[in-house]
Amino acid sequence: MEATSRRGGRRGGRRAARTAALLLVAAAAGCYDGAFLDLACDRQGTCPNGTTTDASTGASSSTTDGGPTLEAFRVDTITIADPHFYYQIADTCTDVTDQLELAIASEVADGALNLVLLFDHADPAAATVGLTFTEAICVLGTEQTSCGFKDADTFIPVSASNSSESPCDVVTPGTTNPAYASAGVANVPPPICFASPRGPVVLPAIGALPPITFEVAQVAASYGSGAAPVDGLVDGILAGYMPASKAMTLTGEIKGIPFELWSSIAGSGASCNIDPMNPLDDTDADPDPNVIERGVWFYFNFTATRVDWIQ
Fold first, then answer.
1. Mean pLDDT for the chain?
2. What is the pLDDT of residues 123-137, one digit of tens each?
3. If you average pLDDT over residues 108-132, what whole number do you get?
4. Torsion, CA 193, CA 59, CA 214, CA 161, rounded to 10
């Protein structure tokens, strides 16, 4: 986003308070294109335990001497760090980011939204770890939650890099709005932490929404403990970039409520302005400097708790 306009007020306006939740569901449970599959750890030669990726389907399996060994962490909190979302309510341009977060919290709490980070050993002492970010089916319990694949074909592990000395910063400089800092900034996970490689992800249609594309996506978090076994993940962040041409196609309905992604982004040319005299611009330059088209970076903070994984 442009530095001048990224300094001003909050973003807003989404039609439905469930928008961001569905974006995250999609981001976790989608189809990966060829460029992202090239990052699969078996193709990079970095899988810790013999994980292989099927070239035709993208499906992967983990094969250790004792059978598949997967450690699962279910996302239990999600907040929207950037951008904010605006919606014209009556004659007032309103920032509805808080309402979106409440809706996400409700989805997570009742088990409607189950995002899981799967590790082929979550070992803070290792240099790299096999990681997959996927949607799951979970049974929530008071003492322990159990989860399993919603679609095993989305198990495409990549080799995430651990850092014991430096923070795992996946935020692109200049793409967040300092004016939103009072509501919470995008996380920069401190060590010991991990960060996935960047890669494009093509997401399937959800309900009445068309497929969603993040040209670049990346996830990072800090381990809840400095040694295995890890009981949780903290200071997590999911980053994803979407070009304007893709965001414009995301129109439809969410539970009967009209939804248009691009028109809720300040500076898109279709959004309302909280302060017309000082309009915001939350759009961002494409990660590829050779691409003129602008888009928007999305940053979602999260924490995750260890759960039982049923293969």
1. 77
2. 999 999 999 888 889
3. 90
4. 20
Task: Report which residue type is found at 30.
Answer: G
Residue whose pair of structure tokens reads 């539970």 in the numeric block: 255
Q: Which residues, listed in sequence order, are joined to residue 94 by a DSSP beta bridge?
A: 87
Q: Which of 243, 279, 280 has its CA nearest to residue 261? A: 243
The answer to whether 124 and 225 have CB atoms below 8 angstroms apart is yes
Rounded Cα distance, 188 and 134, in Å: 22
Among residues 88, 98, 96, the alpha carbon closest in space to that of 273 is found at 88
CA distance linking residue 70 with residue 51, whole number of Å? 11
What is the per-residue pLDDT across 48-82, written as a single tens digit (0 to 9) for each?
A: 454 444 333 333 333 444 445 799 999 999 999 99
As a whole number of angstroms, the distance between CA 178 and CA 207 comes to 34
The answer to whether 101 touches 79, Cβ cutoff 8 Å, is yes
Residue 212 sits at φ, ψ, to 5 deg, of -115, 135
| 99, 173, 188, 190, 305 from 170: Cα distances, Å | 26, 9, 7, 12, 21
Contact assessment for residue 305 and residue 73, using Cβ atoms and an 8 Å cutoff: yes
Buried b (16+ CB within 10 A) or exposed e, 196-210: bbbbbbbbeebeebe
- Look up residue 262 and give its two tokens: 């691009």
**CA dist., res. 146 & res. 292, Å (int):** 46
What lies within 8 Å, CB to CB, of 261 at 6+ separation is 19, 242, 247, 248, 250, 251
DSSP letter at 211 equals: P
Q: Give CA–CA dist 198/215, Å, rounded.
A: 9
